[in-house]
Amino acid sequence: MPENYKEIDNIFFTDGYQLAESILKDFISPGSLSRLTELLYINIDGLLEDFESRIKLENKKIDCKESCHWCCTQAVFINPREALYILKYVRSNFNDEELSELKSRVSKKQKNTKDLSLKEQLTHKADCPFLKDRICSIYSVRPMACRIYLSMSLASCKANYNNPESEKKFAKLYDFPLHAGRMLNEGIASYLREKNIYVPAINIESGMKYFLQSDNSAELWLKGDKKFPSPEYTTEDLAELKRFEINE
Question: Which pLDDT tens digit goes with each residue over 207-247?
């Protein structure tokens, strides 16, 4: 990690922790967690707008385009709080048929990835359950991992898609958003762990499968249930994600 990121990471970790403390100090519930996640995304979106303005002054660009979808076929890692936020959205905005189709797509992808190692998941290409006609059906509530995945080069995303196992053909991503988003999330996770809330890193299909399975899944998780259909990835495991990144 570049030396200058140590201080930046500490700042964003603290920001995430303090945001969680301010929202959750009185009561931790699905509702308060949704409010926390909403505020977190407002903050990160504002930060990313400022970041885009800065890089434009440097004659750089974010080469992500609507419906390009190349990153929507790879592993997406979330936490239960984010899965709950998505669940709230789909229950309010998807009709019965759409919800049934979503459950089917979630189950299908989870079945295909549940026995893969983390390394195998990182090279496995299959549509996200929320991708429909090359458009994200939950874009406004997409998880942090999607928000901070900002490419310098659309060509590099296509190359990674077509050569997933190559260590030379990877998406060229901006480093600052990755650090900011991850450390904000980790600050929140640290606060929740202090309150004995289980906060695993899981792939999106496993998280959604868990919360879609019953109406009381959220309450079970907050009471300590750890039966997610996916292993919890360690910090060392998730370091494998670094091979997909390049410093700006």
Answer: 999 999 988 999 999 999 998 887 777 666 766 655 544 44
Q: Domain residue spans in the chain?
A: 4-244
- Residue-level pLDDT at 119: 83
Q: What is the rounded distance in angstroms from the CA atom of residue 187 to the CA atom of residue 95?
A: 35
pTM comes to 0.91
Taking every pair of Cα atoms in the chain, the longest distance, rounded to a whole number of angstroms, is 51
Q: Is the pLDDT of residue 122 over 90?
A: no
Q: How many percent of the chain have pLDDT more than 70?
A: 92
